[in-house]
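Example record used in the benchmark description.
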Amino acid sequence: MLNLLRLQLILACLFVFQVSFAQKLTYEDSVNSWYRQRIIDLKAPDGWVNLAGLFWLEKGKNTLGSGNDNSIKVNHPDMPTHAGTFEVAGDEVRWTTHPGSQVLYNNAAITSLLVYSSSQSSQPQLAIGSLRMNIIIRGDKTGIRLRDLQSAAIKQFKAPARFPINQQWKIKARFKPSPSATIAIQNVLGQVNREASPGQLVFTYQKKTYQLDVLNEGDQWFVLFADATSGKTTYPTGRFLYVPKNKEGEEVYLDFNLAFNPPCAFTNFATCPLPPPQNRLPFAIIAGEKYKAHAMQ
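Model output (structure tokens):
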């Protein structure tokens, strides 16, 4: 009888171990799956790795081409000597193709096109060979974002190193609403914008309570944060994190294993927002992506 009880106890322990191990594998698989998709997204046509330029436009006419006499000179085999002109007037930008050059929109050659208006719901993307161009607005600045779908950077790209996956960095939190609140978000250009913030995610780490202001991003909260690893093993200005919004009865988790580098870690042609001072944590978050220049651990 005693031996039977021992056997049952051993089997019960084995079952608990197997369940625990399976849960750990399932969690690690989910994080690894997320990371594989992230690398695909970074290298995608609309990702960050293929950015080839960022040019700020002046009011009036801005000529584009590979020739030295252009306002914006782009050295690329697919760029004509004179490709055309971006003209900025009020809150609109119009493109006019230079005679003899070919510029496409939706696979059709165009001679002229309104490429930006504050009333447009989406902004057209122009194509010249492997190059793609669209307008971006940053405060009072209007710019051209240039991509190269055949960029050598895509082939040379190396996925950023990560800290080992550790489920202890999936930390339970609670959402504290702050109706009508706004927070100041500065970007790398030095511009500061007031952004609506629905509240904070409050959590406990080593018996101390912290909170992070969040921004709305559809069915997720968007968190910009820095910590004691910033500038050492992770990107100097901080990292980003998405947190799924919980439905009633569900719990909220800050999963720092999913913390990732801002676009500025991969290109000089991004205009990344910076974590606000209140989102700078005093401890080291040994989870998520490292910065490629500091991947020593």
